[in-house]
Amino acid sequence: MDLLRFATAGSVDDGKSTLIGRLLLDSKAIFEDQLEAVEATSNAKGYDYTDLALLTDGLRSEREQGITIDVAYRYFATPRRKFIIADTPGHVQYTRNMVTGASTADLGLVLVDARQGLTEQSRRHAVLLSLLRVPHLVLAVNKMDLVGFDQGVFERIRQEFVTFTQRLNVPDLAVIPISALQGDNVVTRSDAMPWYEGSSLMHHLENVHIASDRDLRDVRFPVQYVVRPKSDEHHDYRGYAGQVASGVLKPGDEVMVLPSGLTSRIAAIDSFTEQVEEAFPPMSVVVRLEDDLDVSRGDMICRVNNAPEPTQDVDAMVCWMTREPLRPRQKLAIKHTTRSARALVKDIQYRLDINTLHRDGDTRELGLNEIGRVTLRTTQQLLVDPYEQNRTTGSFILIDEATGTTVGAGMIN
């Protein structure tokens, strides 16, 4: 079974947490004692229904305020596929949390309230998912039961969203009418909406094609650790451990190690339990080479005629994640794949208004939760690809050297 990572987003009270609770409940992914605890809490609050949002809103402050603050990860599986859900917050002041949760997603799920239609937050979430190059997008029009399952309401919202996303980079879009509270079109098709001829949300999640989203052409293998057991049994063993970022590696392939430029061939590829005939993303493996080269953490194994461009000048879209603003001439640590360096902020070209897509070129700083185009100069060469081509080698994080706190996340242009 393959794995689908998807992130949910939506305005406050659009029903994200309830929808995830419904997916978990109807796919039999909840233990009986969990359900009993949620039912007891719902009764204590005086509800005449089971509040499924309590399954995901785990923080006490989230339950008290009725909003999602942090990213909540949930895991479940069906006979067809395994899932990791990132329940991301919808409020603008938690934009950084949404960026974190959606950065590894294969699919973005945006919820809107059928009574409210598209809101400023709905548009902002679509822009962020597009900016993060999430390849598949689903708009779930929730609370259809509260508008009498009216087809006209659904069609108006669908058309408005389709028109809006034409300005964005959204390669695959599906729009599904649902009722998370009652379960209509969530796991099974609803009889209440005979005019809707598409699939249920769960059927779409189980069948959306994600295999072709991964880059299997450009070999990128950042070295994380050099394996040298030095035991009597493995005294001559030398391998390079890491996670395949893209491409396919096979024994016998001619490869190059950057930044040295030295070449060799792959002697063998080891997994945790056995040798494998090929490695592809996102497998974690140990690569052994025929020649004893100088390879260390932060180096990258790639094809001889298909290598990333080493550079010390990085042009990227940066989401700033701390209260102290980002300013030119600021010095930070940067971590790109397995390589760490120091970076100087050369310039802030513009701040992006993610509600209107307006570029503010007069700005001189980026504040908390703001996104802008930034140029950096690094102390070491980084082996980068454009983010739209490779989300692993095209991204990085910025770290405050004094505190060790992650203060920014970048997507290389």
UniProtKB/TrEMBL annotation:
* UniProt cross-references to Pfam families, sorted A to Z: GTP-eEF1A_C, GTP_EFTU
Q: Which UniProt keywords apply?
A: ATP-binding, GTP-binding, Nucleotide-binding, Nucleotidyltransferase, Transferase
Answer yes or no on keyword Magnesium: no
**CDD domains per the record?**
CysN_ATPS, CysN_NodQ_II, CysN_NoDQ_III
Q: What class of enzyme is it?
A: transferase
Question: What EC number(s) does this enzyme carry?
Answer: 2.7.7.4
Q: Which SUPFAM superfamilies match?
A: EF-Tu/eEF-1alpha/eIF2-gamma C-terminal domain, P-loop containing nucleoside triphosphate hydrolases, Translation proteins
> Which PANTHER family does the annotation name?
TRANSLATION FACTOR
What the entry lists under NCBIfam families is as follows:
CysN
What is the recorded name of this protein? Answer: sulfate adenylyltransferase
Instruction: Please name the source species.
Output: Phycicoccus sonneratiae
Identify the taxonomic lineage of the organism of origin.
Bacteria, Bacillati, Actinomycetota, Actinomycetes, Micrococcales
